[in-house]
Amino acid sequence: MKDERWDDIMQSVTRLLKHKGAELPTHGDPLNQLQQALQVLEEKEATVQTILPSTNERINAILNAIIAIANLDYSAVAPVEGSGDIFDALAGGINMLSEELQASTVSLREKEVLLKEVHHRVKNNLQVISSLLSLQASTINDPLVLEKFIDSQKRVKSMALVHEKLYESGDLNTIDFKEYIESLVESLHASFDVRSCSIELVLAININNRLFNIDTAIPCGLIINELLANCFKYAFEGRTNGKLLLSLHQEVEDPYDYVLVVEDDGVGMPEHVDPHTTETLGLQLIYSLADQLDGVVELHRQPGTRFTIKFQSIRKGG
Amino acid sequence: MLLTPPSKALENEVFTTWLHESGVVISVVKKEAVIDLEEAVANTYMVLEVSEGVKHPMLVDTRDIKSITKAARDHFSMKGRDNKVLAIALLVGSPLSRVIGNFFIGLNKSTVPVKLFNNAAPAMRWLNDFKEV
């Protein structure tokens, strides 16, 4: 019975030693073996206690480097101590990853700067074109030709405004379309001589997603430009006051995303003008640009004029 | 034996480089070596010198490496410059040298074939297929 209990103890000690990477001493009697085994276990434990603090320090240093990299701070370096162990491998790998990520991030920033510069230059070039048209217009005496020049100048300006908003935007890909409409309306209103008529201008923009990409913003901006220009030019002729409403809201009916309405209480579009066959460039543009947005145009005449355009936002790659 | 440098081997602070009689250029990274672009370029000149204008496959013993910078890795990837070697066998051993080797293959992507080996003999056999006849 005593021997069996002894065997159990020795088996347990053997298992414990094996777990610590050691073996039961083979020399001496069982008591002596047990003493040696306990001494080995004590030494192992002392080694662990010595190594543990430095191991914790290395793990912390590696974790700190990982957290710094996650915060896009590439100055942190995980220490490689030259011990050739797994911690050195981890630290070395993290340092190399940091270098590669830093290079990629710089490259991305360079692209952002470049894109901003492109939008800025496009806007400047469009402004130059607008100025050239204006200069050319100053030499024209024929009022009909002059009007066409001024109309073209306004179209170019509305496109330049999109690029201006783009390089001012955070992501350089989308613009806040509510802000854009407000700027466009202000600019257009100021450009027409409507002093003889007091126009009450109402903007009702109620859209959850105000961010439009350039493929949607340019045609949509040009449509608004044409509709408002028509109103300012023709709707209130011979009137001392009038009301102009521009609304943009989200559409719930598929397949359209938005509904743009430009409505006035003016004299109304003459019945004989058929927007599908007219040679007026402005009306042709409205239908053609709505088509670009996979949209439809509805026209209601009398009282006043109401254009309703339902359209989709253009998704790149779609 | 294979990786014992001959007396005519070229040497600097981080590399020992020579042309083995089998026609393979061997470069051994010294213990605790920290390789930056300067050392990488120096190694390229050493390889050129021992190669005497002829392209050879190359064995690089990285087992004792301590670190290598991105600039040096990019240089060794040989992108945008004339290849001076036909293929590279990287000898790895320590966990760190394995990580560096895998990084070099996975991210820096050399323009010549690269493979990792644990031993020199199979590496030399693999490189043998790339020798120019």
What does this structure look like?
The complex is a heterodimer of chains A (318) and B (133). By secondary structure, chain A is an alpha+beta fold. Chain A has helices at 2-19, 30-70, 86-137, 143-168, 177-191, 214-235, 281-292, and strands at residues 174-176, 198-206, 211-213, 241-250, 258-264, 296-301, 305-311. In chain A, strand 6 and strand 7 (305-311) form a beta hairpin. Chain B is built from 4 helices and 8 strands, in the order E-E-E-E-H-E-E-H-E-H-E-H. Chain B starts with 9 loop residues before the first strand and ends in a 5-residue tail after the last helix. Classes of the chains: A alpha+beta (318), B alpha/beta (133). The A-B interface holds A 80, 82, 84-86, 88-90, 92-93, 95-97, 99-100, 103 and B 32, 66-70, 73, 94-96, 98-100, 103, 107.
Key words describing this protein structure:
heterodimer, A: 318 residues, alpha+beta, five-stranded mixed β-sheet, two-stranded antiparallel ribbon, 7 strands, 58% helix, B: 133 residues, alpha/beta, six-stranded mixed β-sheet, 35% helix, 27% strand
Strand neighbour order, sheet with most strands of chain A = 2-4-5-7-6
What is the structural class of chain A? alpha+beta
Order of helices and strands of chain A: HHHHEHEEHEEHEE
Rg of Cα set of chain A: 38 Å
Computed over alpha carbons, the radius of gyration of chain B is: 13 Å
Main beta sheet strand tally, sense and closure of chain B: 6 strands, mixed
Low-confidence stretches of chain B: none
Silhouette of chain B: globular
Oligomeric form? heterodimer
Largest sheet strand order of chain B:
1-2-3-5-7-8
Amount of helix of chain A: 55-70%
